[in-house]
Each structure stands twice: as structure tokens, then as C-alpha cells.
Task: structure prediction
Amino acid sequence: MASIRFEKVSKSFGSKKVLDSLSFKVEDKEFFCLLGPPGSGKTTTLRILAGVEKADEGDVYIGDELVNDVPARYRDVSMLFETLALFPNKTGYDNIAFPLRVRKEAESEVRDSVMKVAGLLKIEPLLDRRPRTFSGGERQRVALAKAIVRRSNVIILDEPLSNIDALLRLNMRVELKRLAKEIGQTIIFSTHDQVEAMSMSQEILVLSDRRVHQIGSPSEVYDHPTDKTVCRIIGSPPMNLVDCAYEDKGNTAYLTGPIKLDVTKYISQIRQAESRELILGIRPCDVAASKEPSSDKAFEATVIASEPIGSKTIVHVKTSEETILDVIGQPWVEYGMDDKVWLAVDETKIHIIDRKTERVLV
Amino acid sequence: MAVKDLTLRVEDKSLVTLLGPSGCGKTTTLKMISGLTFPTSGEIYFDGVKVTKLRPQERKVGLVFQDYAVFPTMSGFDNIAFGLAVKGMAKSDIKKRVREIAETLHIVEVLDSMPGRMTQSELQSVALARTLVTNPSVLFLDEPLSNLDAAFRVRMRAELKRLQKEIAQTVVYVTHDQVEAMSISDKIAVMNFGALQQYGTPSEVYNHPSTRFVAGFIGSPPMNFIDCTFIDDPGSLDLGVARLDIRKIRDVVSQEATSPELILGVRPEDIMVEGKPESKESIEFLVEAYEPLGDEAIIDADLGGNLIRVTVPTTLTAEPGDRKYLRFNLDRIHIIDKKTEKVIV
Result:
């Protein structure tokens, strides 16, 4: 049984508090992700889990065992940290075999395990070569093999794809996901790249400003973010957040501000806000820009810049009230600076956030 | 040979990107244009004037490299003013110029700060300001965003492009990130192994790639390539697992192909997925993986032994092991000659 539980874990380095009463649970065999900007405490969390760092407060459980005082080498975890620890003078094979030999496993067993993992990661040709001949991606895969060969209950990966170039990273995402399913161990990894978090994990923990903002599946954090931070972190280009207010006319309600919308159907949720000051959240992919108004609800905006990225074009626009929005335009249509476009908002996809508490109401 | 036979023309006030994988010769090309290296043969001209043997200072260029190299012991103001002070400009003029550029780049608040206290974005803006303030004829940026985290990089891309247009500065940008190149450039020079593969606008290199390399390098997720055979009569592509009717373009293929061995190139977003076969063009495949990305999802598909990627809307879900059907958008396929690696259609 290899579930993980953090209960109110806090950690400071000198006067700087890095983790503040962090609590979360990872189920057995889950592929779990810690997502957050650099400096949010992800690596510290993983180091505390590995036993390399000790928490100042709180409890860490692996399975049902309280491991606060258990040294790293006695915890059944394998880890891969960002600074890849490959022995430069050992072959790929010997590097991967190392954790098994340290545990004095029989050579025949060692051979079986190494070959199996090498097959999974497609690194057989690297087994009799040395790390200095490896490319960045190959080094990463061998280090990964070393981390998973031991079949420990928990595998910790700290930014496992950060040193790999864009194209290989795409392939590795699928490979890692497939691997996770095949080896059936609990895997917890960290990243600052939300695309990685979304495509690979079963559960994502959004970590920022030393605290947990939301824990949920990729579709949960994308479709139902619970606060402003999650809204901004998940999704690329990031969600547009527009300050607005609302008018309550008894049985109808309207959002006022740069984008005016009838929000009567959400009136009970909106009334729970601490004040009339709200934020309207709408993802760029849910606002369509076109050269002609597509409906009578469409409103006008001026193009500031456009980014054609292939399958779609991101258009940065300014509304008549000087609000800047990112929207999606049709691919390969020219959106020149100062051109006028019409924007249509998908009203089923809006989010309304309480400006004071930063909690998502709708 | 790091760079061979490169001929390129950069228009005034435009942003041109040298794009390619590491080792393709883009940094060497950058060094030659800026004057840090001299070409072994050939000439370089700025505004019609031959600058081939001139040093960087004599060419009036500005350079910003990956690590910014902001002077750590000087304030934001002093960093930016450095180039002007060295030239002996009057103090009051320096003050005016620095303030101007700081306002354009939104870094007025850090003029009095030390680099140790600045954020990545501020450091990068100071490095940029330092070169821009000297009014370079061409500004060179070598992978300026590669040190930044994902979300930040997206914001800075838009900022850079806006800035470039606002101050009408000619910029030569170097990167290996094709999304970056696509989103900010007026024109992209795609390079590989020291040679120029294609030079065109983002739309040109994306929609009309001229070689297999360009087709596969531009676009994310990348274009799928499937080996196939051309059957002249009646004009179809044999993929093994299916045959595609390409009678509309049969004549072009017939003329241009050097052999019947071809490669079908199709982008993940130009393939439609169906639960059951909707037409006689629907082809069965096995779902290998499903990646939900929020606004869309990627299916890794096994099509008769070929592993391809398809982009689907999030309303379509799938599990590994499912059998589904796909259809190619035949108006958007590319046909590549397997031997010459040139794109025929």
C-alpha cells in the first residue's frame, strides 16, 4: 500500500516560510502532480517526502506509516531530482543497476529488472555507453530508468521533463503516462508547465504562495477552478480576468463593466459575494473574434497584436473601455494592428469570481 | 561547415527569426550578421552598405544574449545609461533617453534598483533597454526567453512583439522554439544542418512547407508522416491500411514525384475522429493514449502500425484500447517525395 499523506506540513528556511500548513493525500498507484510556479515550494515538498529534508511541523505518512523520523534510505521511495545524478564513469547499465546492487540483489534479478525497464523506456542502445555520450533526452531517460527500476512503492520525480527540448518532451509525456500505468506504482511529480500537468496526471495539486489552491483531476481544475489563482495557472493562453460589478434588479442580474452579460441564472451564487465587486473570467478559447458581428450580443474591440501559432491565432485586443483581452481568431486570417473585430463570448463557459475573497462563485 | 551558402534578406523594421534545432547554424549566422564572427566567404550588407569585415561596434548593432549579462553592481539606470556614457553623451541627454526607453518598457520603477532585487522580467527589460537606447540599426536577440518559465514566456512573447512594432526596430531573433517563432515573426528562416530550408511568413512555413524538415518542425503537435505508395491509375495513395482518393491532385503528383514512394503529411488538427464510420473514407484505428489539455485533447493513434497524433475537441473522450475511426481532411494534406524530401503538394 503506497498512499501518501501530508498533514499540516510547514517548512521555513531561515525567516522565509516556504510551506504553510500543507495538507494533501495521494491514493495508492495514483499519478499525482504538484503544479505551481517556480519557488512555490514543490521541490521542498518532494524533498520532505523523500526524507532528504525534515519538516518543521506536521506529519508525513507513506502508506499507513508515519515517516517523519525515518531517514531517506529507509523509506521505500525512489527519486529523480532536477540535477540528474548519473555516475559519469559507469555505463548506462551500471547506472540503472546501482540502486538494486546497493540492496544486494542477485545479479540475475538485477539483469531482469534493468532489461525490463530499458525496454519500457527504449534505452537498450544506451546500456553499454557512458553518460557523456548521451543527449539531454537520453540522460533524462536513463535517470528515469534508475528511479523506477527498484519498484519502490513511491516514485518521486522533480521536474522530470524540464531539461528536454520541446519535441522530445511531447513524446516523453505520452511515454511517462503509459509507463505509470504499466508499472503500477504511486508516482508524484512536479512541474511548472500546466500542459504537462494536464496531459499526464490523474490528480493535480495547484500550489502557489505556499498553499494549496485546488486538488482535482485535469478536467476539474480546467472546467471548475475554485479560485482566481487556479483560473490563471491552468490553461494557455491564460484566462482573461476582467474587473466588473453587478446590478441586482430583484429577479434579474446583469454584469456591468467592459463586458455586459445577463447573469440572472447565477443570481443565487453571485449574491454570496462579499461585495458587488466581481471578476469575470473567460478563457481566450471561449471568446471568438471575427471580422463581422456573429450575433447581436457581439461587441467591438480593436486589435493590438496577433500571434499565429498554427492551428489557431491568438489575438490581443482592447475593448472600448481600454480592457485588454486575449481571444482566439480564425487561423490564418490577417488581424492587423488597429483593425476592428467583433467578439462573441461563450456564455456557458464564463466564471465569476468574488474580487475580495478571490473565490470562484460560478 | 557550420553554415553553407546562406542568402537572406531582412526588411527594414521587420522581425525575422532564425529558427532551427541546436547545431543548425543559427547562432553562427547571428554572429556573422552582428560581427562577432567573419564569414569564410560571401558578403553581408546593411542598408546596401557592405559590412562584412566591420566589427560589431562599427555596424551599430545591439545584442541581447540568453543570459542578459546585466551589470550586477550597477543600478537599472546606470546599466541602461552605460552605452551612452561610454560614447560621451551629455548627462542631461542621457537622463532623457533613459527615461524615455524605461517608460516604453515599463521599467521606470526599477531605474533606482539594483539587479539583485529585480525579477526576471525586469532584468530582461533592462538588458533590452540597454541595447535599445543606443539606437541600433539591428537588434539581435539570441534565445532571450529560454530561461523563463512557461507561463511567463507566453506573456513576454506578446510584449516583445508589441514593443518591436511600437518602436519600429529591425530585429533578428534566434530560437529553437517554433511556437515562439510563429507567434512573433514577420518572417522565419528555418535552418537545419547549416542550410536554409525555407524563408517565409509564419503562414507560408506552416501552410506551405517546402521540405519534409520544415513540415515536421513547424507546428505543435508536429505533423504526422505516413509512408505510402502512389498509384497513378486512378490516382490514389496506398497507405497499407487504407487507400486515399487523390484524383484532384493526381496530375501534379504524377509530374513532380521522382518515384511512387511518397510520404503523406497531415497535421493533427486536420484529422477528424468518429465513433463509428461516417463515410467510406473512414479508417479504423486503435487508441494508444489520450491526453486532455483543457481546451482540446490529443489522441495517440495506432493506424495499421503507424503511430500518429490527432487533436480532438474535449467533448470526445477515449481510453487506451478503444477502437475508433478517423478521416483525413484531404484539402489540407501534404504529399512529400520520399527520396528528395521535397513537398510536392
In short: Chain A touches chain B at residues 37-38, 165-167, 170, 173-174, 177-178, 181, 192-195, 198-200, 218-219, 222, 233-238, 283, 285, 304-305, 307-311, 314, 316, 332, 337 (CB under 8 Å). Residues 6 and 60 of chain A are 5 Å apart (CA to CA). The mean pLDDT of chain A is 87. Chain A has nine helices and 20 strands.
